[in-house]
Every structure is written in C-alpha cells, then in structure tokens.
Amino acid sequence: MLSGKTALITGAARGIGKAIALKLAGEGADIAFTDLALSDATAQLEKELQSNGVKAKGYASNAANFEDTQKVVGEIVAEFGRIDILVNNAGITKDGALKRMTEDQWDAVIAVNLKSVFNFTKAVQPVMWKQAGGSIINMSSVVGVSGNSNQANYSASKAGIIGFTKSVAQEFGIRGIRSNAIAPGFIETEMTAALPDEIRKAWIEQIPLRRGGTPDDVAGAVLFLASDLSSYVSGQVIQVCGAMNC
Ligand code: NAD
Q1: Does residue 141 have its Cβ closer than 6 Å to ligand 1?
Q2: What pLDDT was estimated at residue 195?
Q3: Which end of the chain has fewer CB within 10 Å, C or N?
Q4: Closest residue (by CA) to atom 12 of ligand 1?
C-alpha cells in the first residue's frame, strides 16, 4: 500500500512508534525514525525494518527542540529525497494532581507533546507542499477529548494537538495534504506499564472490549490514515480505544 513513499515517525525507538514503523515498512514505505538517542535497540529496529526490503534509518533528535528538528528534517530529506507521511508520535507523561503540579511538569509535557508537533509539521510542510501531497498523523489521546484527573498537563497537550490537526487540515488541504489525529485509549506499552497494577486493572474494567489495546491496534489506524484508503479523510480524530470514553 505504501511502496515508493517515505514515512517519518518521531519517538519510534519503542512502544506505539516502533509498531507504526514496522507496520508502514511492512507495506513498503521507506522509514526515517527519530528518538532522543540511538542505541543497540534502534540499530536492531533499523535492521528489522530493512528486512522488508525498504530503506530505514534512525536519527537522534529531541522533538521538543525547534532547531534540532529543522536540522534532522534537513538530514532526512537529503537522505530520502522526500517525505510523504509524518507521524508525530513522541510523547511523555508527568502526571500529578494540579494542586501539586510544578511549572516544570507543565512545561516539559507541553514542549514534548505539543510543541514537537508544531516543530515537525513546520519543518516538513515545505517538502509536502512542494510534492503537492502528504499525510500528517498526530498522536493525541482519548484524554485530549475527555480530560482526565491528574493529567491536566497531558490532557491539555493532547487537546491542543486536536486543534492544531484540524487547523492544518484546513490550511494545507488546497495542496492535497491531509492532517488527522489518532486518540488511543489505554494501550499496553512501557508508558502504561509504569502505572500501578490496581490502576491498570481499573482502566481495563472500564473498557467495553475488556482489554488494553496493543501498539499494533494503533498502527493499523495509522496505516489507514497514511494510505490512499483514507484519501478523502482529513481534519478527523479517530479514537482507538475499545469503545472507552465513547
Ligand atoms: P513510550 O514511552 O513507550 O514511547 C515514547 C517514545 O518517545 C520513547 O521511545 C521516547 O524515548 C520517545 N520520546 C520521548 N520524548 C522525546 C523527545 N523529546 N524527542 C523524541 N523522542 C522522544 O510511549 P507510547 O505508549 O508508545 O506512546 C506513544 C504516543 O502515544 C505518545 O504520544 C503517547 O502520549 C500516545 N498515547 C499513548 C497511550 C498509551 O496508552 N500508551 C494512550 C494515548 C496516547
């Protein structure tokens, strides 16, 4: 479905980003991925991606940093020649009751989750504009739609992503560039493994499908938005949540 296309995925060393990279490579896309640092694990991921017969390369970059992003996107364009799919996936949590939330907790989450989406979209848009096409996919969250106690910073960042996504869809539609968001529910990754067992159990009991999602469940929705299957879908938020919060 994606042969001849290049996808750029942020925060793909593990979790949902890694599953997305593997899914898109499996459909023939060349893959440029970023994370904060390169490691044995990212070298292994490059090899795994390349085993699909595609080009794949990892880059160390802090998605929250504007200059870093300009630089890495320049390197990726020089190496791959084009960018057809941008998946803004990098994200962090720094949860806590608002009463106790520090300015640092607020700033870090807004910078990594929301400013990164601005940074990468801004750096990639001239490339897509020139190509007269592209698909931008931003990783929001169900709590960006519904809010969540103890996650005021995270929910605000993920709600901001939805406003950004819809605005970009309206601004870039004229060049055939689509922009959509995915709002995952409770997905079993290292991010959620950090939660205490009783909280994880309580989340799962609220999910009509009675299980946490897998990174591959999210990657399937990304493939739909990345491919021509969704050629007339833009400005949307797809919740991948097992009917939680619906
Ligand atoms: P994860 O913590 O397993 O992976 C996130 C990756 O992003 C890590 O490899 C990390 O190193 C990288 N990263 C963090 N800060 C970065 C930065 N400044 N620059 C570049 N890379 C950075 O998380 P995950 O569960 O795979 O989540 C991926 C995305 O999905 C995040 O945006 C998250 O908010 C979102 N999401 C996750 C869930 C869930 O239940 N796991 C639910 C909704 C949304």
Answers
A1: yes
A2: 87
A3: C
A4: 11
- In this prediction, the residues of the chain whose per-residue pLDDT falls under 50 are none
What residue ranges do the domains of the chain occupy? 6-240
Report CA(92)–ligand 1 centroid distance (Å): 5
Q: How far is the CA of 51 from the centre of ligand 1 (A)?
A: 25
- State pLDDT tens for residues 83-131: 999 999 999 999 999 999 999 999 999 999 999 999 999 999 999 999 9
Helix axes 15-26, 215-226, angle to 10 degrees: 50
Top-level CATH class of 6-240?
alpha beta
Decide: 108 in ligand 1 pocket, CB within 6 A: no
pTM: 0.98
